[in-house]
Amino acid sequence: MPAWARGNAGAAAATPLNAQTQPAAAEESLWSYFSSGLSGYVPLRSADRSSEEEAFLSLSHWERLLGFFACMAGSALCFTFSLFFLAPPILALRPHKFALAFSLASLLFLLGCVCCAC
C-alpha cells in the first residue's frame, strides 16, 4: 500500500520521484497488499461463528414448506389479479396494473421455489 494511502504524507513527500524499486520488492509488496485484504475472510462454516448466527440463518423443513406454500398462494392470487386486468378496458387504460400484478406473481413464484430449495 502506498504511503499516501496509509495517511503517512511525510514519507510520501520524502521519496524521490525517479527512485526505482527492485522487481522482487514490488511483487512482494503487491502480494502483501492483496493477502492483507483476504485475511479478514471468515468461511460460512467456521468455528468463529456463534451458534446464534447459525440458528438465525437456517430454517427447519416445516418453515421452508410454510414459506413455499405462502409464496405459491400469493403468486396464485397475483396471477389471478393479472388475468382480471387483461380485460380490454382495464388493459387499454391502465396497463401498469397488469404489469405490476404479473411481475409480483412471477417474483413470488421464484421466491417460493428458492424457499423450498435452500
Provide a quick synopsis of the model:
By secondary structure, the chain is mostly helical. It has helices at 3-6, 9-14, 23-38, 51-57, 61-84, 88-93, 95-117. It has 7 helices and no strands.
Can you give keywords for this protein?
single chain; 118 residues; mainly alpha; 2 domains; 7 helices; elongated
How would you sum up this structure, described in words?
It is a single chain. The protein has helices at residues 3-6, 9-14, 23-38, 51-57, 61-84, 88-93, 95-117. It is elongated, with a radius of gyration of 28 Å. The model has no long low-confidence stretch (mean pLDDT 74). The protein is an all-alpha fold. The chain is built from seven helices and no strands. 73% of the residues lie in helices and 0% in strands. It has two domains: 3-38, no CATH class; 58-117.
Q: How large is the radius of gyration?
A: 28 Å
Content-based structural category:
mainly alpha
What order do the helices and strands follow?
HHHHHHH
- Overall geometry comes to elongated
Q: What percent of residues adopt helix (DSSP H or I)?
A: over 70%
Question: Mean of residue pLDDT?
Answer: 74
Given the structure, what is the number of helices? 7
Lay out the secondary structure.
Layout: H1 3-6, H2 9-14, H3 23-38, H4 51-57, H5 61-84, H6 88-93, H7 95-117
Helix pairs in contact: 5-7
Transmembrane segments: 65-86, 98-117
InterPro entries: Vesicle_transpt_Got1/SFT2 (IPR007305)
Protein name: Vesicle transport protein
